[in-house]
Design brief:
Layout: H1 3-19, H2 26-51, H3 56-59, H4 70-96, H5 107-115, H6 120-125, H7 132-163, H8 173-206, H9 208-235, H10 246-258, H11 260-266, H12 269-278, H13 285-313, H14 319-339, H15 343-351
Helix pairs in contact: 1-2, 1-4, 2-8, 2-12, 7-8, 7-9, 7-12, 7-13, 7-14, 8-9, 8-10, 8-11, 9-10, 9-11, 9-14, 12-13
């Protein structure tokens, strides 16, 4: 795992709590999510930029020992920086958010609030109140994340193993590929930030459902391109230096960068859609985000448990998992285009 990826893993843990406090208005929630994606992109750019730097062991020399090589020292440095940043952000969160403890509330308000706490069984029980439009959003979300998780799990490994033809514990080719993957992920975050800025304008022009659907189709094409690049790399004879031809490297990095656009959409539109569709049910924003997070976590568990055996079934490598990702992303995009309403376009035609 690279330093940049170790930084970025924290964001998956913070998505639900960070979004549960956003508003109920569809447009405002979408804009809030776009800003959320923008600042997350800025953090990712810094994280992946540090991951592409291989000299952290010189800055923190105590990490390099007889039992810990240079690559181990760089990874250890990443964890140290993670601890520092987590402590800093935790302190900022605690000191900035002012919450009223239950003990300070009135007795009747305390009892009422405690009775209305969304425990696990209430979260599961709320599924029986979900309407068909909510189920459609959840299915599209689940298919979208079946597409995303193979990429998020194996992106830098794919670059090191299948593009640079290296092995994790042998030589420098694999680690060169991982660092190049970190560079691609940094560009991915740049595109994510730019897309977050223009996302609201795109949704007003085309409708949120169509934008989400197009992003799914684009994801599918990118994952398909990764399969093609893997095949070209496998059938190409590399020079004695072991460095892939520049064309293969550039193509792989471009795919990484382009995927930043659908990633920004994935971080924004589904949360706005689910918040507006659950509002009439009066479930509350926290419970609505919990329901949506289940549609994200369940695919993650399936991909994490099944991708390894699935890859081994077809001879190893990451290509089988990316093939499944391409199919899932295409199905999610097609379903979003067909089944989700283009609300912005409908309103525009009504005003005419």
């Amino acid at each position: 795992m690279t330093m940049g990826k170790s930084f970025s893993k924290r964001k998956m843990l913070l998505l639900g709590p960070g979004r549960s406090g956003q508003g109920k208005d569809h447009r405002r929630t979408r804009i809030a999510n776009a800003y959320f994606s923008l600042f997350m992109a800025l953090g990712n750019i810094l994280g992946f930029a540090t991951g592409s730097y291989s000299g952290w062991f010189t800055i923190l020399p105590f990490t390099l020992t007889s039992a810990c090589s240079v690559n181990c020292a760089n990874l250890k440095s990443a964890f140290i920086l993670d601890i520092v940043l987590l402590a800093l952000t935790t302190y900022i969160s605690i000191s900035s958010v002012q919450e009223i403890p239950l003990s300070d509330m009135g007795a009747e308000h305390s009892a009422e609030e405690v009775q209305q706490e969304a425990f696990l069984w209430e979260l599961i029980g709320s599924f029986r109140y979900l309407t068909p439009p909510i189920w459609i959003v959840l299915i599209v979300v689940a298919l979208t994340w079946v597409g995303w998780f193979p990429f998020l799990l194996f992106d830098t490994d794919w670059m090191g193993r299948e593009i640079y033809k290296g092995k994790p514990n042998e030589g420098h080719a694999y680690h060169l590929g991982v660092r190049m993957g970190s560079l691609g992920l940094m560009l991915n975050s740049v595109v994510l930030g730019v897309t977050s800025v223009i996302l609201e304008r795109l949704c007003r022009k085309w409708g949120a459902g169509l934008v989400w659907g197009i992003s799914g189709i684009l994801m599918s094409f990118c994952f398909g391109a990764m399969l093609i690049i893997s095949y070209v790399a496998e059938t190409t004879e590399y020079p004695s230096s072991g460095i892939p031809p520049i064309g293969i490297i550039v193509a792989a990095v471009i795919v990484f960068a382009v995927l930043g656009a659908p990633l920004a959409i994935t971080y924004s539109i589904p949360y706005a859609m689910i918040s507006t569709r659950t509002e009439p049910l009066r479930l509350g924003q926290g419970l609505a985000m919990g329901i949506l997070n289940l549609a994200i976590v369940v695919p993650q568990v399936i991909v994490s448990l099944g991708s390894g055996p699935w890859d081994q079934l077809f001879g190893g490598g990451n290509s089988p998992a990316f093939a499944v990702a391409a199919v899932a992303a295409f199905c999610s995009g097609l379903m979003a285009i067909i089944a989700l309403p283009r609300s912005s376009i409908t309103r525009a035609r009504t005003h005419k």
